[in-house]
Amino acid sequence: MLSAESQRPNALTAFKVSRRWFEQGRRIEMQELAAELDVSRATLFRWVGSRDVLLAEIIWSLVKPALRGVLETTSGHGPARVAAIMGGFAAEIDAVEGLHRFMEREPERALRLITTRRGTVQQRAVAHVENILRQEISPESFVLPSHELAYLLIRILESFAYTPLITGEPADPRRVEQATAALLRA
Fold first, then answer.
1. Residue 147 backbone phi and psi in degrees, to 5
2. Which of 11, 79, 95, 100 is the most exposed place for a label (fewest CB within 10 A)?
3. pTM confidence score
């Protein structure tokens, strides 16, 4: 339970506690989270939505800073920079230990939340990559419309970044950069 000195729990508190659990490799159970916060399950669901919605938010909160960091540290311009960003993004995702534990513990849920259009993680990643494409490459150079190209680049990243989950082979972020460069002819 929360300490007596802490303020009343709210949606942000629920998110912070659940993210801490996620990073520790602990399974997020809504009943346990509600008990930890000393609120009803109904209140918890009103605050954060379903377990899947909460998990997607946690995952995005770990993935977005990784992308932001790669954007800040990747030099160059044009297709070569986009390829380097995608490879760096894959490497950063591969370094998120809590995500590895989640994928090992709940592989089907992880794939559904991370790699499908139904999940908000992929939608957000595609939107960010589309913005990167528009900043780095002239639209006349796109081999596909920008949204479709961004979606394809995210699918390439997913294919290589989540290889351990899909095929059991180790992830290889370099292949994400190579495939992106080939697609963009960088």
1. -65, -45
2. 95
3. 0.89
